[in-house]
Amino acid sequence: MLKRHLVNEVTDSLDGYLKKDIDQAVDIILDSMKEALSEGRRVEIRGFGSFSVRQRKARETKNPKTGKMMSIPPRKTLHFTMSKSLKDTLVKKEK
Description:
By secondary structure, the chain is an alpha+beta fold. About 45% of the residues lie in helices and about 30% in strands. The protein has 3 helices and 5 strands; from the N terminus they run H-H-E-E-E-E-E-H.
């Protein structure tokens, strides 16, 4: 789902709000999430899941194309853990 699809769905389900206002609200939510994650805080949306930042260690690996050893520096990655209710919903849809 793209951001514009999310904005359209929220606009369709809420009467009395302009699309530009909903778009601005979605931007504010996403910016708040980015800010919290960049500060190393966890973002939890009940019934959906939680986002957190994890630190990956530096490591040595072989380049499959050239066969040379190369070092990968440490880096931060985004981790998502889905809620139990979202997991149950996804499992029901697979059956």
